[in-house]
Amino acid sequence: MVENDSPLGDATVAADLLDDDEAEPAIVDDGTLPADRFLDRELSWLAFNQRVLELAEDDTIPLLERSNFLAIFASNLDEFFMVRVAGLKRRIETGLAVPTNIGTPPTRVLAEIGARAHELQERHARAFHELVKPALDEAGIHIESWSDLDENDRASLDDIFSTQIFPVLMPLAVDPAHPFPYISGLSLNLSIRVRNPKTQRVEFARLKVPQNLPRFVQLPDDGSGRQRFIPLEDLISNHLGALFPGMEILEHHEFRVTRNEDVQIEEDETESIIQALEKELRQRRFGPPIRLEITDDMDPVTLSLLMQELDVTEEEVFRLPAPLDLGGLFELSRVDRPQLKYPKQVPVTSAALLPSDPTEKPDIFGSISRGDVLVHHPYESFATSVQAFLEQAAADPSVLAIKQTLYRTSGDSPIVEALIDAAEAGKAVLALVEIKARFDEQANISWARKLEKAGVHVVYGMVGLKTHCKLALVVRQERGGLKHYSHIGTGNYNPKTSRIYEDLGLFTADDVVGKDLTRLFNELSGYAIEKKFKRLLVAPLHLRKGLVKHIEQEAKHARAGHPASIRIKVNSMVDEAVIDALYRASQAGVQVDIVVRGICALRPGVEGLSENIRVRSILGRYLEHSRIFAFENDGDPQIYIGSADMMHRNLDRRVEALVRLASPDHLTQVNEILDSAMSEESSSWRLGEDGTWARHDRASDGTPLADVQSRTMQRVAARKRGGPRR
User: Fold this and answer.
1) Which residue among 468, 484, 648, 666 is the active-site one?
2) Distance in angstroms (rounded) separating the CA atoms of residues 114 and 108
């Protein structure tokens, strides 16, 4: 998996939007709502990726960022095939599939998303060849082909090939003595047909393009000031004679296979979950092929062989112009051209965490003691808030215990190091590591073992549930007794993604929240059955019920003529029960505003059903990741933030937590976020009742609409030190 610092484009992002339901839950329908009220979730996901592609096509966005968006689109689509398409095919083949929430047979859904995926991949290729690549050429960044090069360049590359590339290549012949080789998922490969001049026998060979070498090989400086690259596969293709000496090269083409790489764990209380997961991870790489990408000039003989050996159908073949796998464009982000990237933005320290005297050392616990603190990443620094909170807790001799959930974290995590330091200092430390976080399983197993070795109490949640909530609890000995310091967030404890994911986090010394978290951690690590919470809504038992209750209360207020509105910001809106509750609220006259980054199965603007519902989507420099649920409640606003999306997995098969905000200033701050996203003066995509997303980035007079994220940067930077927080 390509590591990158770009929003929307790594495994943690696509997996964040991809549900893994084996079957859709039954819809509670009393017959008062129309049967066609849901949009197809798979097509909605593809529409999300189309919005990403539209950013790559937008010439007002810095050029290297557009290149990144092309890579993001490719990476996202890989994940879509590995998870959703693979899961749908598996359910069809095993007979487990049931009609989707819109009543469409799974086989038809598969055909529709296949056709749409073909259209989008072709549009993606055109965006690279016709828009981004010419713009890169004009900017002096050239992706060359071998035919473009002169003799001096070729001589330089001959040397690079022979010394840096040739030694790691492994051509594999296919003949009676050499069976067709295993083709690993997402690897880039060359199919090669050669002829023996002595026997005239034609043979086939496969050559894997090494994934541990740069995808784009930089050419030596020619004095022109241009930065020039050649795709690694193009360089290798033009040196095949060195790999097959004495043979005549007849054909060579690129191809790429996507496999089902979703892990299905059969959890058994008698077996270690780590052992079960490690067993499944070993099998992941051998999942069946579900997509074959080939260059559009591949000869029929080679294609026929690949289709037969890989057991793929014509519908699973994607013919595209070279180069394949434009996810490799992430590598261009290393080009040092600041004017072709977003202007650098340095996160500020939350004003509430700054000492009143600038010469004093920050005191996280002192700041939280004075009042709840709400931080907004990446505009406000993760390092000086969440990371500092845990590091100070680890070093503070008055801290007795730290409890923490870890879903995803970075490769060199200071969060994990802080927990290790705390344990080694003699503090009681509990880490709930979710080792089943998709595509981070192996990394999380490694971190879990490192934590255990340091003396941290490591637990893995509950059988049958993933622990997705973002919680940290610090217990500190103070003059009046033990005090709880809590953090509840919308994003992972990951310093790397905190620079590009938009998230919210609440710090509080409120004893009510501290006791809520204590009960929840006890439930997760032990056998507690106490499930009553005061400021939290917790899944899987109470979160959906709690939200639906709030929605129904707004409907009652509206029918009584009292102030009523609902505003929700999530990554995905799929859950039928929540959507139906929103439809009924709309019918009662409640204005419902939804900001959704990815999938939305709700159909807005339908007369008599959802004419009071508006849906917007914000995509851009940062990945919108916070989850907010705001209810007007007859003038007594109730606003929650937390980890849960409105998807079946979040509400039924995960431990999720939302916390209610108590500070009036925090309610104002969150309302500003929602106001900005829904404003007619803000650039956004708007969802129509037919499921089509339309981009609105210019006013009627042609002037650009405001960028939500840029405006948020300005608003956060303008906050004053020591301002009111309650």
Assistant:
1) 468
2) 10
